[in-house]
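User: Let's play a game. I give you a shape written as tokens, and you guess the letters that built it. Ready? Here's round one.
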């Protein structure tokens, strides 16, 4: 890339120039950022996700904080996205009264194309119980460990990536841990 004009140089123009003199750019990263920005700026996406407020919630959730706070912030994101996706056929009262585990199961099915079997449903219910305990009593249940809370946070990262049309990594094996 030319330092003065910002234009990319051809291979022929770069011949004979030492590597340390290159002004390198990562075109893949730049293209991906531009793709995401175009996506979230589109009227269709803005309408579908009601302005994308959950992205601000996500920014807050991934800030350095204790796991309990990050977990609750991520739960809020899932609830928010559930409401957005179901507002057409459920009123606010029905959305508020629906159990958290049903909302989580809906999002897993909708975005991750995950069929919820008995084992996964039990794990979702455990996570929901932890959410309720944190909200009402300020501490997690003994039946869930921090790894399960972290799994939910990692699933939230993957959810955001899917919504932004990125290819999320499953490096933390979040799906497999939900099934076990």
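Assistant: Ready! My guess for every position:
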């Amino acid at each position: 890339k030319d330092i003065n004009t910002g234009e990319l140089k051809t291979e022929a123009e770069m011949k004979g120039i030492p590597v340390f003199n290159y002004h390198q750019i990562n075109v893949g990263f730049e293209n991906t950022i531009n793709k995401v920005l175009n996506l979230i700026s589109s009227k269709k996406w803005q309408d579908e996700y009601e302005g994308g407020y959950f992205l601000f919630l996500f920014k807050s959730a991934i800030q350095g904080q204790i796991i309990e706070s990050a977990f609750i912030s991520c739960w809020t994101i899932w609830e928010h996205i559930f409401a957005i996706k179901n507002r057409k056929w459920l009123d606010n009262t029905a959305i508020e009264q629906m159990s958290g585990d049903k909302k989580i199961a809906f999002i897993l099915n909708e975005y991750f194309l995950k069929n919820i079997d008995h084992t996964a449903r039990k794990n979702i219910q455990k996570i929901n119980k932890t959410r309720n305990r944190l909200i009402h009593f300020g501490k997690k249940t003994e039946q869930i460990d921090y790894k399960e809370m972290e799994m939910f946070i990692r699933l939230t990262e993957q959810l955001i990536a899917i919504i932004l049309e990125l290819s999320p990594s499953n490096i933390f094996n979040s799906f497999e841990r939900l099934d076990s």
